Amino acid sequence: MSTKDEVREFLVSRRANVTPQQAGIPDFGGERRVPGLRREEVAMLAGVSPDYYTRLERGNIRGASESVLEAIARALQLNDAEREYLFDLARTAPAAAARIRKPPAQSVRTSVQRVLDNMTVPAVVHNAHQDLVAANLMGRALYAPHFDTDSTPNIARFIFLDRRAQDFYVDWPQARRTVAAIVRLEAGRDPLNKELTALIGELSTRSPQFRQDWAGHNVHEHRTGVKSFRHPEVGPVTVAFDVFAMPGEAGLQIVTYSPPPNTDSADKFALLASWAATRESEREAGRVSDVGLVSRPVTGATHPVTND
Known about the structure:
5-stranded antiparallel beta sheet; alpha+beta; 5 strands; 308 residues; 47% helix
């Protein structure tokens, strides 16, 4: 999809989410062809002419000033992630072909891996494509099903294409929607990212659930929150997660997971640590396979979902 098409569909979808009542303007009745605000109502709220806003909504966002974009974001009541996405679309529209992009990172520096290994909580590192490029022992244990693959572990592929995801994520529909929204945000930041475009194309082809979630045009940025997993070894766990950007490593983020103290999930984490340590010792002794507990991509059985 071109940037112009994405601008159009994003603005139309956000406009449909705001009612006149929410915007604080009178509704004079009459049948509305689409839910939410009319174009002229958004233009009035943003302080621009209806013709100008119509041009923007048709995808002609090139040259829009920061003040205009801010006004439209306020009129459409965009959250922080949606506002950032709108600005990214405007930023990448002009002369995008001239941009030079570094290839996506597939590993971390040795010093970063040492930091991960010295953490006592699970920690993973992912790039903009949702590839799991690094983890500590507890991180690999927590995400063991994701690492059980013959290619680079990828959160989005696991959630949409692996049947085990429906058991692993307690709220699988929410996990799906969140990942689709994160991928859309990353696509807005870098629309020429061939790897990300290929991932979107693969998921769109193979997963009707992804097509459904992608059509919502939602965007999301992970920062902090709570997740619930149904781990195959220790059972249900609920953990807080925190996301840390890595300056100097564009697109890489460290995500840590910690359970509240004195909870059942904290007890489960102690069991998970014991299980991970035992498996690691056995692996080093050569008695079991290294599936799920090594820092490199591992070879193992996959469980694809056939959605076609």
